[in-house]
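Pinned message: reference record for Regulator
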Amino acid sequence: MRAATVERSTTPGRVNAVVTTAEHPTARPALDSLRRARELFLTGRQLPDGVPEEIVSAWRRARFLGVRHDVGDAVPERAVRPPESLLLTAARPVLERIAAGLGPGQPALVLTDERLRVLWSTGFARDDLGRPDLSEQAVGHNSAVRALRTRRRAEVHGPEHFLDLWQDVSAVSVPLLAPGTGRILGTVTVASRLCAECGPHPGAPLAEAAASAVEAELLARSRSAERVLLDAYLRAVGEEPGRQGRRAVVALDGRNRLVSEDAARLLSPEGLEALERHTVSLLEAASGVGTEAGGPGSGAGSALAGTGAAADATFQRTRTAADATPQTTRTAADATPQTTRTAADATPQTTRTAADATPQGAGTAARSAPSTSYDIRLPHTAGCSATVTPVLHQGSAIGAVAVLEPVGDAADVSSAGTGGVGLAGRSVPWRHAVARATELARHPGPLLIVGERGTGKTALARELAASPLAADAAEGEIGSWLGQLAQDRALLVRHVERLEQSDTATLNALLETHPDAPLLVTYTPGTPPGPCLQRLLDSLAARSVTLPALRERTEDIRELLTALTPGPVPGQPPLTWTLDALRALERYPWPGNVTELAHVVRTLAETRRATGPVRRAELPDLVREGPARRRLSPMEHAERAAILDALHRNGGNKARTAAALGIARATLYRKLRGYRG
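Predicted structure (tokens):
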């Protein structure tokens, strides 16, 4: 039979009267039989039938781990109590209120972290359960171990324990789960004298209620901590005195990421992951706060989750030049400039920030708390460095705010602006491609720019080289142009995939004798290249960059529209776009990439007669209707285009469209549904 348990209530501090079942053996032997079986096991003799395999396996694990069953009841002198943590800070007042209502001889309460280290205990647990560590490696099988493994309430009675010390103890444990993430933070255990015949533990409702109350307190504190992190982020994003524009800022707590618009442009997803790993490692190394229960990583409000591998970032402490101004309900404030300390200065310097806040009324009032800032040099591929400041709340680090600064090529690309179509775009894939091309162009040698048709290969090449000579392989032989390379004159060869074989061979020979020739080559992949062209591509592969298709950087479309729109004409308003039209432009896959987008913009600018922003209805049919949701055959593509054209000519009237196409109206509806499905 399965023992009944009381289901956890969704209301903090309350228990529902709903009976469920807990994981227990279907047939638990009598205590005397189990005690005799344990004695036989400890003496190495044959066990009788009927002993639950789960209990025998637990005894075997304890023996394998080297646990002594006859360990004494004295707490080891060298045992170190875990440091103060958010879990303990939240749970202590709750458990102390519960313990105050328990009279002498009543059940004991024990709180552990996720590693089953005892954080707090009261009642007879101080003497009978006086162990600093309840992990299976230290004391063998117990209810806390089982609750942690099953993520459910668990009971262990008397001889089910491995230790002699606990043969007259019954215990029930409930796991503590982090609000929001569900990650296990620790356990609450109620222990008592041995219960007769191992029935459901009478302290189970108490354990459930205590766990619910602790989780409710963690949730309340997590909301407060999240507000503190948000306030610190908003202050960091605010404009700095003497600085133009807003800063690139990322706030991290292991569960949440707050990324400013400038930071999203500057940092790739991989760079963001690296920043988070490095920040966690920095906080562990600098403050000694790891991912212990309730610390950063506990999930109790912040949870800098996961220690990960040791980060290879270079850390350098910095200190702010002035105290931050405390904020209450404002969303941004002036940030204080930071000056880097020398490596020889080994004494940590603290700063005053407004990161530590306590809830007051309906708002969050911030008060100053000491903190230290660190410079992190991220991997070169990230293209930026970060100044990280831990965010403190109630004495614990709940996360960190990182202010990003571009370095090297990223700084050049970030400051390039949108002066022309060749560099227009702030998306991560485009910015990284431009950064690599800029870096390669700084050093002598050829450069291969690869991309689909219309991705902007030629425009980028013209931005990288000052007034290069341009030769288009699609327009004929280019042999007459190749002599310019020997004179150190930059040459742009477009559509190298269309080169005649003789020209390709000449180019290969020239690069062998002049490996640093100022040559820019654009290549559009398509049919497999021949051996001569493949040799050329292989020789240029080490100095190549691939441009992303427009469908891979749709966030750049609005910036491209600004760069592609013709200058204002006297008497005509500038070309602007409705939000609906912009969404249609961003959903369209743009097989012709930037060239196709430029054609749409130019056509609208030349032929449009309406006033006001461009509406979605004015866009070309394929752009307006968006891509088909399934892959269409060439015949279906042609049929769909014909139907959309007819709909446009007939003002969207489906009856007239069907008549014009010579099909039934029901057929038209079916085809439209098929294309959209």
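Pinned by admin. Summary line: The chain has five domains: 31-72+81-217, 239-288+370-407, 446-547, 552-625, 634-675.
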